[in-house]
Amino acid sequence: MDNKKLVAYFSVGGDTAVVAKQLARAAGADVYAIKPAVPYTDADLDWKNTNSRTSVEMRSNTLPEIDGKLDNMDEYDVVFIGFPVWWYLAPKIINTFLASYDFSGKTLIPFATSGGSDMYKAEAVLQAAAKSAKWLPGKLLNGDYTVEDMKEWINELKINN
Q1: From 31's CA, which of 8, 67, 109, 156 has a CA 20 to 30 Å away?
Q2: What are phi and psi of 82, to 5 degrees?
């Protein structure tokens, strides 16, 4: 019997949402959008402004609040966690998500979208934030991945047993 899967993702521009929904189809997974309690504005997302909300968040240990909570996290065995890469890391709201649930005994798999950065540094930070989980290697999934490509990756992960 397959493990029950969830694709949880955070997206502000829509790219990560598109990839997350495509991954959910490929994995036969449920989908959950991680949304900030206070939505980001264009000014908040200005990474060139050192005083913008995202710039301040990424430099601090403050975790932004999430709007809502998934009541049935205990039902999932495998959780894909998606995000855009910010400053070579996952946005701090992903750390909020990881701190919001007990991931003991669960398999976590990060995936990201990026305009040019890789995600290796993000993976290390996330693994430290949820040490009780089993982490599998993540993947940068920009728009050129098809559902078939994603199915191949999922098969390589060996999570369907």
Answers
A1: 156
A2: -110, 150
pLDDT tens-digit map of 109-139: 999 998 777 788 899 899 999 999 999 999 9
Q: Using CA atoms, how far apart are residues 73 and 152, in angstroms rounded to an integer?
A: 26
Beta bridge partners of 31: 7
Q: pLDDT tens, 47-86? A: 888 888 888 888 888 899 999 999 999 999 999 999 999 8
φ, ψ at 101 (rounded to 5°): -140, 160
How buried is residue 104: exposed, middle or buried, by Cβ count under 10 Å (0-12/13-18/19+)? exposed
d(CA 40, CA 124) in angstroms, rounded, equals 26
Exposure string (b/e) for 46-55, b if CB count within 10 Å is 16 or more? eeeeeebbbb
The C-alpha atoms of residue 34 and residue 11 are separated, in whole angstroms, by 8
Gyration radius (Cα) of the chain, Å: 15
